[in-house]
């Protein structure tokens, strides 16, 4: 009892002394020991140094990209910008967890996109440089903006009007993308300046053409196409164009339509739009989600940013939903239904407004004094005059391909995929491992993604058909905190946890813990982040220490204590390239004997 009371008195005295000293110093301080405080300070300093290292390396590639734009080397600029972004993605640090990294990374993505596809908003190169702490000269930034030759776009739906009127369809080179494989030219750019030849115009004067004309009118009256329109000789002239010099364009479109037609028909039907109107997609993009017009209209349905936003298509630093499949198709159907209602069910006028905007069509109607497409025809932009009969001709051919000489075309198989909801900021590299495919194919299935990472929100990703269950099973095993730092590896027949531990550098206990405690590995297993290698593939040693490869790649073996960066420096290669080529991170620690592929420069 006495000891207990003394103990209490001692504690009270100590507490009073602590309070007195704290007030004497002007504040109440924590009770953390100086030793632990020093450790935390040292850790914070190391973390700050790592963040600075990442931003500095990314800035080096970004500035090199600017210099390449200044010197008209656009493809090289695109590669430099890709590397700048990859520095963040492969840094082994969660970008979203650090305010400086997140701000720099987000602004970098947006700035690169604005340089690659110029719009009415100039890329904020100087602001990005200030955010990231990069030393980009003001003169260089100004030169790049001037070099891009930006032309402000219309902020309303009246797209392509100026070029259709003036005949000027020259899109600044930068708006075609730094790398040609990312975007393809929209067929509408050629359509705007297309002129039918005398032979194509005279095709309507034959007895066969006149007989076909009467049969088409009967089909229209019977609503065989799902909607009514006024037959006109110009429609037959475009049929003749596609039977002649435009044959390859029609053949390509009829083939590619098979990939998206079932989905498009279903969505148009659900939205109350005639199913045959989906053939608008062939004229707009030739069924290419990567199609981009001079006016920055993008995707299967060629939305400009403003109209896309009107119908719910987001454009952020992470996604451009105009390039997606389902959402963009539904937005197109909703827009078409809106236009048809605006023009009292006249689908020809609705199609015209889809092309040139409601304003142009309204003015043409006022000048013609009639709500009739062919009456308003002379007052519409040249592109729109071609556009509507072109779609009607495409509908005729698509509904009777045998009759028009296209019966040999077999549409491509429907594009098949599964959809999986993934956590925020999920790496496509990790998804590719889980679904047995490549990052390139995932980008093909998800053209709305602007980087190799999903947005910082739960997001639905398309994966190869039949792989959703495997992806879900893998993601259930992944640690939530550092998900993208883990990797996935396949197990070989008869392989044990010890075998996997030997080749990954992760202990058996860690591997088993992450993979549900199973005694024997099977199928795909998760390899958590650790002190060893973050390997994603199993391979048996088949090459000597250094072996020249005919593909321009050589295989080397790591030495004790090597990291990817150290090994890349030894062979004069880029650490980013080596890491990317081998599915590793620049900071990955390599065990002695680990085979690493070094791409040639």
Number of helices: 26
Q: What class do helices, strands and sheet pairing give?
A: mainly alpha
- From the alpha carbons, calculate the radius of gyration and give it in angstroms: 31 Å
Low-pLDDT regions: 1-33, 150-176, 531-551
Portion of residues in beta strands equals 5-15%
Estimated helix fraction: 40-55%
Mean of residue pLDDT?
Answer: 79
How is the topology of this model organized?
Blueprint: H1 2-24, H2 34-70, H3 74-89, H4 99-116, H5 125-132, H6 138-148, H7 161-166, E1 184-185, H8 187-191, H9 198-202, H10 207-221, H11 233-243, H12 247-270, H13 280-285, E2 291-292, H14 305-310, H15 326-342, H16 347-356, H17 358-368, H18 373-376, H19 382-399, E3 417-422, H20 428-434, H21 439-445, E4 459-464, H22 468-477, E5 487-490, H23 497-504, H24 508-514, E6 524-527, E7 553-557, H25 564-570, H26 575-582, E8 595-599
Parallel strand pairs: 1-2
Antiparallel strand pairs: 3-4, 5-6, 7-8
Helix pairs in contact: 2-3, 2-6, 3-4, 4-5, 11-19, 12-15, 15-16, 16-17, 16-19, 20-21, 25-26
Structure write-up:
The chain is mainly α. 51% of the residues lie in helices and 6% in strands. It has 26 helices and eight strands. The protein has a two-stranded parallel sheet. Helix 12 crosses helix 15 and helix 16 crosses helix 19. It is elongated, with a radius of gyration of 31 Å. The N terminus is likely disordered.
């Amino acid at each position: 009892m006495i000891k207990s009371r003394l103990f209490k008195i001692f504690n009270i005295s100590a507490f009073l002394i602590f309070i007195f000293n704290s007030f004497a110093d002007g504040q109440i301080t924590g009770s953390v020991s100086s030793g632990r405080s020093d450790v935390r300070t040292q850790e914070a300093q190391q973390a700050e140094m790592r963040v600075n290292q990442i931003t500095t390396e990314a800035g080096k590639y970004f500035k090199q990209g600017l210099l390449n734009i200044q010197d008209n080397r656009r493809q090289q600029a695109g590669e430099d910008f890709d590397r700048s972004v990859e520095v963040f993605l492969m840094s082994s640090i969660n970008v979203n967890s650090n305010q400086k990294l997140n701000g720099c990374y987000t602004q970098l993505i947006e700035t690169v996109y604005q340089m690659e596809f110029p719009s009415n908003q100039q890329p904020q190169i100087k602001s990005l440089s200030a955010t990231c702490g990069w030393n980009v000269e003001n003169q260089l930034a100004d030169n790049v903006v001037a070099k891009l030759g930006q032309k402000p776009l219309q902020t309303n739906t009246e797209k392509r009007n100026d070029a259709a009127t003036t005949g000027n369809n020259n899109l600044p080179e930068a708006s075609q993308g730094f790398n040609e494989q990312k975007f393809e030219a929209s067929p509408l750019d050629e359509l705007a300046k297309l002129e039918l030849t005398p032979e194509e115009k005279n095709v309507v004067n034959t007895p066969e053409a006149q007989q076909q004309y009467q049969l088409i009118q009967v089909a229209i009256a019977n609503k065989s196409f799902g909607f009514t329109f006024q037959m006109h000789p110009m429609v037959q002239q475009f049929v003749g164009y596609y039977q002649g010099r435009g044959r390859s364009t029609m053949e390509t479109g009829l083939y590619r339509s098979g990939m998206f037609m079932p989905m498009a028909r279903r969505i148009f039907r659900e939205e109350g739009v005639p199913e045959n109107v989906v053939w608008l997609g062939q004229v707009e993009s030739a069924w290419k989600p990567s199609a981009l017009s001079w006016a920055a209209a993008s995707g299967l349905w060629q939305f400009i940013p403003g109209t896309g936003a009107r119908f719910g298509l987001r454009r952020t630093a992470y996604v451009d939903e105009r390039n997606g499949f389902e959402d963009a198709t539904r937005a197109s159907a909703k827009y078409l239904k809106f236009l048809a209602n605006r023009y009292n069910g006249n689908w020809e006028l609705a199609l015209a407004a889809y092309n040139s905007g409601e304003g142009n069509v309204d003015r043409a109607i006022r000048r013609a004094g009639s709500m009739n497409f062919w009456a308003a025809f002379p007052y519409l932009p040249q592109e729109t005059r071609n556009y509507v009969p072109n779609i009607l001709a495409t509908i005729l051919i698509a509904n009777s391909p045998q009759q028009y000489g296209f019966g040999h075309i077999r549409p491509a198989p429907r594009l098949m995929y599964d959809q999986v909801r993934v956590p925020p900021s999920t790496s496509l590299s990790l998804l590719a491992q889980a679904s047995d495919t490549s990052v390139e194919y995932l980008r093909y299935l998800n053209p709305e993604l602007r980087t190799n990472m999903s947005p910082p929100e739960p997001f639905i990703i398309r994966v190869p058909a039949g792989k959703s269950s495997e992806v879900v099973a893998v993601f259930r095993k992944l640690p939530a905190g550092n998900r993208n730092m883990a990797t996935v590896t396949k197990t070989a027949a008869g392989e044990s946890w010890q075998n996997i531990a030997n080749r990954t550098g992760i202990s058996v206990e860690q591997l088993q813990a992450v993979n549900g405690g199973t005694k024997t590995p099977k199928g795909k297993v998760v390899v958590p982040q650790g002190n060893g290698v973050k390997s994603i593939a199993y391979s048996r040693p088949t090459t000597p220490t250094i072996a020249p490869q005919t593909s321009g790649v050589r295989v080397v073996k790591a030495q004790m204590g090597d990291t990817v960066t150290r090994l890349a420096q030894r062979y004069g290669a880029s650490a980013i390239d080596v890491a990317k080529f081998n599915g590793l991170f620049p900071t990955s620690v390599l065990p002695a004997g680990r085979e690493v592929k070094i791409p040639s420069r």
